[in-house]
Design brief:
mainly alpha, two-stranded antiparallel sheet, 2 strands, about 5% strand
Length: about 100
């Protein structure tokens, strides 16, 4: 499944179920809660980590739809930008970008 297809399906599900489609701040809050659930599943070694990560993805793509973004194009553009970046590791082990890309 392509990101654009998932974005469309997530949006259609929100409409069909009467879920939030207008309150961006609420959607960010719900996305944050889903990230927390995914972390808890990973941290506790629960079997539903994949399902929780899928929830994060579905909230994310629906939020992109709410904001009028083509997330698939945004991801492709960002991946290309990231590929051109270079980093060095500082004395604390942090990756520091060394180019302006």
């Amino acid at each position: 499944m392509h990101i654009a297809e998932a974005q469309k399906l997530a949006w259609e599900n929100k409409i069909a179920k009467g879920f939030n489609t207008t309150d961006v701040a609420l959607e960010f809050g719900l996305l944050t809660a889903e990230v927390g659930e995914a972390f808890t599943a990973w941290h506790k070694g629960l079997p539903d980590l994949g399902e929780e990560l899928a929830d994060v993805f579905l909230y994310l793509v629906a939020l992109a739809e709410m904001a009028g973004l083509d997330l698939e194009s945004e991801v492709a553009r960002k991946a290309e930008k990231n590929a051109g970046r270079t980093y060095r590791i500082n004395e604390h082990g942090a990756h520091i970008r060394v180019d302006a890309a």
